[in-house]
Write a structure and sequence with these properties.
single chain, 122 residues, three-stranded antiparallel β-sheet, 11% strand
Amino acid sequence: MKGLPPEALKEVAAYFQALSEPARLQLLNLLRNGDHSVGELAELCGFTAANASRHLSFLTQQGLVEREGRGTSIYYRIADPSIYALCDLVCGNIARKFERTASERRAFTRTQRASGRSTRKA
């Protein structure tokens, strides 16, 4: 992002905004396995077709998915497979954060027990 003008940073922010909604992440995750119709995606996610369509439209605007008409249905597929590398990177960072937090908790608990203090609430 170094050296990007404000207009470009707005585009970057919009891209990340597309990933800031759990429902959209769920849809992207399902599309990892191949094309799906709006109805299929809605059913798999437990969304209404209108809600799934709204999220898919936003993902399409950001260039993350593509749509294709097949008969009377609209099918979606991933337009930018690099999105999965980005998501995997973020998920890995979050997992490492949880591991550090768990290790710190265990160390704190051991310290409390070693000093004879109870970690139970009264």
